[in-house]
Write a structure and sequence with these properties.
The protein is of the alpha/beta class and about 150 residues long. It has a single domain, classed as Rossmann fold. The protein has helices at about 15-30, 45-55, 65-70, 85-95, 140; strands spanning about 5-10, 35-40, 60, 75-80, 100-105, 130. The two termini are about 20 Å apart.
Length: about 150
């Protein structure tokens, strides 16, 4: 994937943490990922998305996560929604060909229409759903190898 626009879906506390991390670390990766940029913050609350975009230097705002997935200039997505909304958005991101959508979540104790937990799979070994941030310090997670 040659598109290196970064989008954050969800402008709450976790979205702001991801935005802060992207803003502060982009200079480390621009040589390896030409065109890496902060493209969009997406949230149903336009004021919240706009504030986060201007605070962290994102180029634009989207109100519908589906519009982010069809934007060919965006290739990197952080899904920062409430846990029960992760599966639908992440699965759609994988199907849209977005590079390794990132989610920070724990297994949701609340049942959803997908059931208590959902395993997302794809036939493309270069794409996967990663439940990485919350578990990054666990020995089993740090020893994990990509397929």
């Amino acid at each position: 994937m040659s598109s290196h626009g970064v989008a954050i879906i969800g402008a709450g506390m976790i979205g702001a943490a991801h935005a802060f991390g992207y803003r502060n670390n982009i200079p480390r990766f621009t040589e390896k990922l030409p065109g890496l940029r902060l493209a969009a913050v997406c949230d149903a609350n336009k004021a919240l998305a706009s504030t986060m975009a201007s605070t962290y230097g994102f180029e634009g705002v989207a109100l519908d996560w589906k519009s982010v997935l069809v934007d060919e200039s965006i290739g990197i997505i952080s899904v920062c929604l409430p846990n029960f909304l992760h599966a639908e958005v992440t699965e759609a991101a994988i199907k849209a060909g977005k590079a390794r959508p990132k989610c920070s979540t724990r297994s949701s104790p609340r049942p959803t229409k997908l059931g208590p937990s959902k395993s997302l799979t794809t036939s493309d070994r270069n794409l996967n759903y990663e439940d990485w941030f919350e578990h990054r310090r666990l020995r089993s997670a740090s020893a994990r190898k990509d397929p």
